Amino acid sequence: MAYNIVTIAGSLRNNSFSLKIANALAKLAPGSLKLEVVTPAGISFFNQDLEGAPPADWLAFREKLQKSNGVLFVTPEYNRSIPGVLKNAIDVASRPYGKSSFLGKPVGIISNSPGLLGGVSAAKHLQNILPGISGPVLQQPEIYLSGVGDAFDADGNLTKDSLKTVLQQFIDAFAAHVAKNQG
Which residues sit opposite 112 in a β-bridge? Predict the structure, then answer.
């Protein structure tokens, strides 16, 4: 049996590096994991006034997470943080209060950037946000992928061997993390 993992690529851009990395992880995942790659596209803005009768898109996203065995975040860094659309998706999924759809789910975080810092500030913000609303966050290896601009071919296939090695190490560690933290 494979564990179902929701892999959230935190950008809306069609050819985002986060989406390409998430898709590469799905291909590299061991047989014990089945990654479903999603983006925050189509998740309406969180508004507490709507909690009594949540929009259908909120309910569908929450249900997808609730049915999963874990969650992977693959995020770019925007202005030294995570993209607003990713924060909105987290806000939607973490409600209503005390009933977070992430609760108890093992979590992994990968940040990325075509620049030198690899989105480290975005990853650190997720590390601050998630502990109160999720299950255990994978602590090692920490992955801040820099220089991802030349890591993929025109079809979105991972071609940079050094990145492939790092992603393989991460997804193998995440698989062990998920197996260890299943109730």
Answer: 76, 145
Residue 52 burial by Cβ neighbours in a 10 Å radius (0-12, 13-18, 19+): exposed
For the chain, what is the mean pLDDT?
A: 95
Alpha-carbon distance of 47 to 106, in angstroms, equals 27
Taking residue 46's Cβ as centre, other Cβ atoms within 10 Å add up to: 19
Instruction: Choose among 39, 34, 30, 45: nearest CA to 8.
Output: 39
Residue 1 is which amino acid?
M
Alpha-carbon 180 to chain mean position: 19
For residue 13, how far is the Cα from the chain centroid? 15
Q: What are the pLDDT digits (tens) for 29-87?
A: 999 999 999 999 999 999 999 999 999 999 999 999 999 999 999 999 999 999 999 99
- Quote the pTM value: 0.96
Contacts of 164 (CB under 8 A, 6+ apart): 24, 28, 158
C-alpha atoms less than 13 angstroms from C-alpha of 131 in its C-beta half-sphere: 7
